[in-house]
Design brief:
The protein folds into two domains: about 200 residues, NAD(P)-binding Rossmann-like Domain (Rossmann fold), CATH 3.40.50.720; about 120 residues, UDP-galactose 4-epimerase, domain 1, CATH 3.90.25.10. By secondary structure, it is of the alpha/beta class. The longest helix has 21 residues. The protein has a seven-stranded parallel sheet with strand order 3-2-1-4-5-7-11, with helices on both faces. Strands 6, 8, 10, 12 and 14 form a five-stranded mixed sheet that branches. A two-stranded parallel ribbon has the order 9-13.
C-alpha cells in the first residue's frame, strides 16, 4: 500500500513516517518544510511543496499510485490563529479542500485526519468523549472542526471515508532517540520545561495557580507521540479493511497538572528548573482530559507509554541529543 503523508516532516508526522516505514508501507511525504525538517524523514520520498497546490497533488497521485492519505498538515498555534485567522482558514481549511478534491479526482477515498481537542472549546465535563459538544473558541479550533464537517459531507456524497483523530496534548519523543519535538517557536509545556532544565531558557512560566484543581495549576492529558502514531496506523488499517468514517479522541485518560509535570521533569532531569508564576490566560479550562475508550474498543488501540515519567524521559533524551545539555 502506498500512503501519502501530508506534513510528514513535522513532529507527529515524522514519527508516523518512521512507523509506516517499519511496517512496510510505500511512503510519499508532502511538506513545504515551513514547520518541518527534511532530516526528520526516515523513510519514503519527500516532495517539497504545499498540499494546497493542485499541480503538485496531480503529479503525486498520478505517479505514486497513492492508496490512502494521512493528513498532518496545518498550523497549530492558538494565539497566532486569533492574530492572523486568514492564515488558518487558508492553510487548515481551504488547502485541505484542495487536497480532498484531488483525492477524489484520482479515486483515493481513504484519509486519516489530524484533528484536535480544540474543537470542544471550553469543556462541560472533566472527561471528554466523542459526543461532547463541539464549540471551538478560536480560529485554530474552528478550522479543524470545519474540516471534520467537510469530511462528513464528502463521505456521504462521494464515498470518501475518513477517520478524524482528536489529539489532546502530544508529548514525548521516539524512544530510540531518532526523532523529537522541534517547533519554532516552541509552545508546548514539556519541551519548554526541558529547555529550562537544559539552560536554554531562563525559566518556565506557570499561567495561573488559582484553578479548581488540587494544586491550583491547570490539568492536561499528555499522550506519547508514538502512541499517537500507533493510533493512526490502526485507523489506516480500519479504512483499508473497508471500515467506515469515524471520530476518536486520543489521550491517556489521566490528567497531570502543570506543577506535577514540572516536578516530574525535575526528577527525570535532576536539574533545577526556575519557575515564575503569571496570571491566567484567557480561555484556559481547569481540566482537559480525554475519554479514549472508543478508540480502544473499536480500533484496538493500546497506548504503550502512559507513564508521565517515561514521556518526559524520552523527551529529555531527545533534548540532550539534539541540543546538548548546557547547564545543570
Amino acid at each position: 500500500m502506498n500512503v501519502l503523508v501530508v506534513g510528514g516532516a513535522g513532529y507527529i508526522g515524522s514519527h508516523m513516517v518512521k512507523l509506516l516505514h517499519e511496517s512496510g508501507y510505500g511512503i510519499t511525504v508532502l511538506d513545504d518544510l515551513s514547520c518541518g525538517y527534511a532530516d526528520a524523514i526516515t523513510g519514503g520520498t519527500l516532495v517539497e511543496g504545499s498540499y494546497g497546490d493542485p499541480n503538485i497533488l496531480e503529479e503525486i497521485f498520478r505517479l505514486k499510485q497513492i492508496d490512502s492519505v494521512i493528513h498532518f498538515g496545518g498550523n497549530i498555534q492558538v494565539s497566532e490563529s486569533t492574530e492572523d485567522p486568514a492564515k488558518y482558514y487558508k492553510n487548515n481549511f481551504a488547502n485541505t479542500q484542495v487536497l480532498v478534491d484531488s483525492m477524489l479526482l484520482h479515486d483515493v477515498k481513504q484519509m486519516v485526519f489530524s484533528s484536535t481537542a480544540a474543537i470542544f472549546g471550553n469543556p462541560k465535563s472533566d472527561s471528554i468523549d466523542e459526543q461532547h459538544q463541539k464549540a471551538p473558541i478560536n480560529p485554530y479550533g474552528n478550522t479543524k472542526y470545519m474540516v471534520e464537517v467537510m469530511l462528513e459531507d464528502y463521505a456521504e456524497a462521494y464515498g470518501l471515508n475518513s477517520i478524524c483523530l482528536r489529539y489532546f496534548n502530544a508529548a514525548g519523543a521516539d524512544p530510540n532517540g531518532m526523532l523529537g519535538e522541534r517547533h519554532e517557536p516552541e509552545t508546548h509545556l514539556i519541551p519548554l520545561i526541558l529547555q529550562a532544565a537544559a539552560g536554554r531558557r531562563e525559566h518556565i512560566g506557570v499561567f495561573g495557580t488559582d484553578y479548581d484543581t488540587p494544586d491550583g495549576s491547570c490539568v492536561r492529558d499528555y499522550i506519547h507521540v508514538n502512541d499517537l502514531a500507533q493510533a493512526h496506523l490502526l485507523a489506516l488499517k480500519h479504512l483499508q479493511a473497508g471500515g467506515s468514517s469515524a471520530h476518536y479522541n486520543l489521550g491517556n485518560g489521566k490528567g497531570f497538572s502543570v506543577l506535577q509535570v514540572i516536578e516530574m521533569a525535575k526528577k527525570v532531569t535532576k536539574c533545577k528548573i526556575p519557575v515564575i508564576n503569571y496570571a491566567r490566560r484567557l480561555g484556559d479550562p481547569d481540566v482537559l482530559v480525554a475519554n479514549s475508550s472508543l478508540a480502544k474498543t473499536e480500533l484496538g488501540w493500546k497506548p504503550e507509554f502512559q507513564s508521565l515519567e517515561k514521556i518526559i524521559e524520552h523527551a529529555w533524551n531527545w533534548e540532550k541529543k539534539h541540543w546538548g545539555k548546557l547547564d545543570s
